[in-house]
Amino acid sequence: MKMTPMIESLVLHFGEMGSRWGFNRTVGQMLALIVLSEDALNADQIREALNVSRGNVSMGLKELQSWRLIQLRHLPGDRKEYYAAAGSIWDMANTVFEERRKREIDPTLSLLRNNIMDDTNEAPPERYARERVTEIHDLLETITQWSAELQRLSPEKLNTLMRLGAGVSKVLDISEKFKRGSADKG
User: Fold this and answer.
1) CATH topology of domain 5-85
2) Is-contact 112 140, C-beta < 8 A?
3) CA–CA distance, 79 with 13 (Å, rounded to integer)
4) Rounded to an integer, what distance in angstroms lies between the CA atom of residue 53 and that of residue 79?
5) pLDDT per residue as tens digits for the range 39-90
6) How far is C-alpha 36 from the chain's CA centre?
7) Which of 60, 70, 77, 179 could form a disulfide with 27 if both were Cys (CB 3.0 to 4.6 A apart)?
8) How far apart are the first and last CA of the chain?
9) Residue limits of the HTH marR-type domain (predicted)?
10) Domain locations along the chain
């Protein structure tokens, strides 16, 4: 499979970004290639396009499947396995958020909860540390709940919300002024 210059540029960039997103360069390149390809690709096509070993492709496909970012497809009359993006860009973004929550946030919340509940040593340094841990826990819990609410929104509503940007802050400022004004009158 021969990539166009534009697709090659994007694939290379996704590879460089892969480590920042939680997987290696080759997996990032594979994801980009699959997402940017109109047709599902088999392992040989991926290997040829990226010039990597069969083993590297096999491991990368397994990793992308574990992230639930690609899906396996079979073509009639062909025994090879083909891979395509698992849904729309919005679907994949939601999946990445969900997987990162499971892999990063949930274990941290669990550790924080355990430390908050363990009050065996209440010496001043422990008391201060527990207060800080509680703050971190509450922040992560709020972010997790907020992101779960966002994930329930349709892509159209989420897109509208994101486009509001600073407008949301202005609405909150107006709401705060209104509440202060009501409190002053009461």
Assistant:
1) Arc Repressor Mutant, subunit A (1.10.10)
2) yes
3) 32
4) 21
5) 999 999 999 999 999 999 999 999 999 999 999 999 999 999 999 999 999 8
6) 18
7) 60
8) 72
9) 22-80
10) 5-85, 89-185
